[in-house]
Design a protein that fits this description.
By secondary structure, this protein is an all-alpha fold. It is built from 4 helices and no strands. Helix 2 packs across helix 4.
Length: about 120
Amino acid sequence: MAKCDEGYLCDVCGQPVERLFESDLYLRYVVGMLDPEVLHTTPERHVKCNPALAQFIVHEKFKPVECPGDFDKRNLDAAFVAEREALVTRGYERLRELARLDLPIVDYPLPEFRGKFAK
């Protein structure tokens, strides 16, 4: 089967990433962590399959994820955690919004990250 016929499979669990707001790849893109030039070459995964990032989503429609170990947010600086929760939660909300909109991919990122990687 051609790769394009398989859809986007999670690099961690192997299951399809069916919805935009489930995508770790696009979450990292909308919050300015990923250059759009590598979207097509970067492995996909579910947000929940990346606990180091997912733990920072604080949203009623997202089941909290724990990240045991050194990168557990409970072990990090409180100001950093608050800042990261605000950003990543906004990114998650943006993905949920994008699922209902018809925008070009360059308009996906949060406003402060649009054009961040422009040359």
